[in-house]
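Project standup — Tuesday

K.O.: blocked on the structure for the chain from last sprint. Re-posting the sequence here as requested.
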Amino acid sequence: MSLDLENTLYLELKDGRVVIEMRPDLAPNHVARIKELAREGFYDGIVFHRVIDGFMAQTGCPDGNGMGGSGKNLSAEFSAEPHLEGTCSMARAGHPDSADSQFFIMFARSPHLDSQYSIWGQVTEGMDAVHAIKKGSGADNGSVSSPDKIISLKVAADV
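H.V.: unblocked you, prediction finished:
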């Protein structure tokens, strides 16, 4: 099966390229917004501000502290799809329709997140580079000092 380049992302990290297959079948509005932000260069240079070993790596906050976003909230697109290793899902505040630009990549299966967060993609290559993202402190809810950054996030069709 050939790659759908319009629905594939290339995430460049310090340890190599991560290929993410986007899932417009699950979350069409989230996929469209992430592609829009990627094409604007929004994610380039943004840190992984919350990284919990064995759980997930979170990014997408322009302020680097988990409090910021692009300024456009998205309506929830929850699905029955499970949160597995490599799943890409939207971070949000307490309200289901509060996702913006922040997302996380799962390090491992986490069933307690299922049907609670909008899954929009799956890592298909480069999971080793994801696992190499600098981890935060468990005592600090995963906050990372001198965190790793996204070098670039691009839609494959544009590369």
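K.O.: great, moving the ticket to review. Residues 49 and 64 are 6 Å apart (CA to CA). The radius of gyration is 14 Å.
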